[in-house]
Amino acid sequence: MNKPQQLSQKLTMTDDRSAIAMMDSPIAVKHTTESTMAQFLSTAEAARMLGLSTTLVQTLVDQGDLKGWKTRGGHRRISLDSIQDYQNAARSAMGAVTKSMVKPRVTVVIEKPQIMGKLMADSAVWKFPVEVTFFESVTEALLELSSRRPDMLVVEMSMPRSHQVKTLQALENFNSRGRSPLSVVLVTEEKDLLSPNTSSPASSSIQVVSGPMSSIWLHAYLTGVVASCQI
Hints:
By secondary structure, the chain is of the alpha/beta class. The chain is 57% helix and 16% strand.
């Protein structure tokens, strides 16, 4: 055998020994194992990454929203890819909801200070996805309408009947001047305040309901507003 052939054979044997040494090396095995394990997280690690509780993460795995498996000891290992996919899907869904979520605006007129204070406090506790603004008088509310028009106007009327009639007429006049009538709900204990023969567009958007105004009534009304807007 000539020298070039001997050198080539020697180099080949050296390469083979190096490859075998690397395969047997603990460092190489450790690196491979860590790379594989990095693709799977524990339940606690997944919970921290998603900002959720461990119980909810386990539920997501059981529902198939996250992919995972269990070790022989019963510990969950959750796929990092499925966690990232879940995050991307959640961000997309949140973006769509944020774009479509426009809180309906409801203006509420309460003339009795004690009732108004209670309803304002209750409304803050309910935390409906509704922008509720309170006023002490219809006049004050109508002045505000010129700059910020609500979707609905609720008026609690406890004044004498003659004043209630004037309030109703003022609201009808307001609706007759606008392009689109404002949806109005009048809460009163008076009977037949709105004539059944009235059929103009200005008055057809005005609804009279039996009072008195209460937290239960307002809660039910706002619940209906949320349901109708499908928020």
